[in-house]
Design goal:
Layout: H1 3-6, H2 9-22, H3 24-34, H4 41-58, H5 67-94, H6 99-114, H7 118-129, H8 134-141, H9 145-163
Helix pairs in contact: 2-4, 3-4, 3-5, 4-5, 6-9, 7-8, 7-9, 8-9
Length: 165
């Protein structure tokens, strides 16, 4: 018996492993849901599994919550971070487009952005140009995080409609 097991760490690790193994279907389902948004299924699954391990490490069953409910936000956050990283690494690949194509696209986006109201532009600028989280954006613009989420969703919808995406 090693030192961790004598302190009860072995039993805790076994509980954690059991929680993780019992909830792999949740990670698979979420990875399927997020796939096709810029990252491969396997990459999302891996990020989700790592997030679930982190959730299992901090989970306290005494609080009465189901582990799957507790882990959901961890997994979702891990997958969203994975998608953000995939988008950041995909941008340099787009740099290979011709100068003329980039110029036309840039002008189209600028024209579409100019049609948004100033608050929508500020939210998109903070989120996508400065890569701030919704919470950080909310604090900077003196808004609530749910308001930032709604404004962002509306602004992206308007941009997509304007650019006909």
């Amino acid at each position: 018996m090693d030192e961790r097991e004598s302190r009860g760490g072995g039993a805790r690790n076994e509980e954690r492993n059991a929680l993780v193994c019992a909830n792999l279907r949740l990670v698979r389902a979420m990875a399927r849901r997020f796939s096709g948004r810029g990252a491969e299924y396997e990459e999302l699954y891996q990020c989700g599994c790592l997030a679930m391990v982190n959730a299992a490490a901090s989970f306290d069953a005494k609080r009465g919550a189901a582990f799957s409910s507790y882990a959901y936000k961890f997994i979702e956050g891990g997958m969203r971070e994975c998608l953000r990283k995939a988008r950041r690494t995909a941008l340099p690949a787009a740099e290979g487009a011709g100068f003329e194509e980039r110029s036309i696209a840039s002008l189209s986006v600028r024209a579409a952005l100019s049609k948004l109201d100033p608050r929508e532009r500020a939210v998109l600028k903070s989120r996508f140009f400065y890569e701030k989280t919704q919470t950080e954006t909310a604090k900077a613009l003196l808004l609530s995080q749910p308001s930032v989420s709604r404004i962002e969703r509306t602004a992206l919808f308007k941009l997509g409609r304007e650019l006909r995406l």
